[in-house]
Each structure stands twice: as C-alpha cells, then as structure tokens.
Amino acid sequence: MVQSVVVGVDGSAASEAAARWAAEQAHRTGRSLRMIHAGVPEARPAEQPADRAESLPEPLRALRDRLASALPESAVSCEQVPGDPAYALVAAGERAGLLVLGSRGLGGFAGLLVGSVGLRAAAHAACPVVLVRAGADGEGGEDGEVVVGVEGGRPCDEVLAFAFEQAAGRGVRLRALQSSPPPAGPYDTEAPLDQREIRDSLAASELVRLQDALGRWRDKFPAVPVEAEVTAAPAARALTEASRSASLVVVGRRLRHTRVAAPMLGPVTHAVLHHAHSPVAVVPHV
C-alpha cells in the first residue's frame, strides 16, 4: 500500500502554501497526496461519499485540481471530515506517518503566526508535523539547506533520521546545530585568558561529541553533505536565524503519555514555530 502525505486545507493562504509543500513531498517520495478539510458539520446518513466530495468549497476543488494537474503521476484527493479539526487531522496524519499544516488558518488572529490547530497538532501528534507559513520570508526556498536542532549530549534518532531523509530527498546540505551557551559570567569582555580558553575547550569538546553522534547517520546517508556547528547563542535564536537560508528546520518534541489539553511544546520548539522564516518540522521522540 502506497502511503500518503496528509495536509489540512481550509481555503486560507497558509493552507494553500502547506498543500504545495505537501505536494512537493509527495512527488519526491512517490506518495499520494491526501488533502483534508476538517471540522465540517456531520454528514446526513443518506449522504453518499461522492456527494460529500462534490460539496467541497470551490477554492478547495480548484486547489485539488491544480495540484492533480501538476502531479499527474500521483494520486491527489480532497475530502471533508467532521469533528474537531486538530483531532481529525492528527488521526489522519498518524495513520500516514506525516502531517502538513498551514501555520495559521482562516480562524486565526492576524498577529499570531501559529494558530491553535497547528499548535495542538504539533504538541500531540505521534508523527512528524510540518507547519508552513504563507509568505515566509526566508531565502532558502526548496533548494536551501535542512537545519536540525540537536540537544547537547542527547541527539535523538527520530529527529536526525527525519532530517537526514529530508536532506537526502532534496539533495541539499544538512546543518546540525547545537546550542551550548557559556556559563554565566563576563567571559567575552572581562574574563581572564585561561577562562576563555576553558570556554573554547568546552565548545570544542561539544563539537567532537556532536560529530560522533552524526557519524552513523553520515554512513547511512553518504551523499548528504553535513555541517556540524556548536554555537554559544541561545537555541531558539540560533535556529531562527539559520531558518533564513533553510528549506526546512527540524526540531524535536518529547513524547509524553498523558491526555492533558494544554500543548506540550518545549520553549525552543515553541519559539521556532512562531519566528522561523522557513517551514518547521516538529518530530516527536522518546
């Protein structure tokens, strides 16, 4: 069975940008494209699936037809699903293994870059969730590097696997970025020379550990050029700045086996989602 790339659509500019991103992903990976308009009223018992397909809003039918014409070798579908949008989209994405969403839909407030559905999906889905913003101002485009944020001392296989696969599919460089801020103190201006040397030595050690962590992934993806970088800048700031030249930024989210309603995105992931200049993939990991 050929897997699909699932994308939520609602007629907004952000969801159209997400659909185009998902279509490119489907084309690269040989998957079908499944567009879902979630949150519609429950269908009447007598209503047939074909009738529901034809009842799609005109902008969604037009988008489906445009993408189907652009991807003649891929199956492209669009369907309406009742119920809570975040729940319906997460359920569909988890079955397919990937969910793509616009960062803000029609119901969002103008000042928010990420809407409630996107935040809930990114916080709770057990599959990678990619959030795409309409009018993103990064310069990387589809040919930009893939940037992955790595936690110091604890690189996550799920996050690195997704990042390497994306870089390999695009034929671009992977940039592994780790933040290692120096201990509090006047290291840059007033610290004695030996303290600055200690700081530089610690950064060098972190870089060696990062290179080691990337070693087996380099072996698995030998065609992917890899740059490892340890920066003293805070992680959210470093990843946001790196997103300017990226086609995708990949960050992790720890899986928690609870059913609380509040999103469980870490502060770095939350900040990157709101401020990145490129699409952002949130990859759950144990």
Automatic annotation (TrEMBL):
This is Universal stress protein. Belongs to the universal stress protein A family. It comes from the Bacteria. Residues 1-133, 146-284 form the UspA domain. It holds the Pfam family Usp. It comes from Kitasatospora cinereorecta.
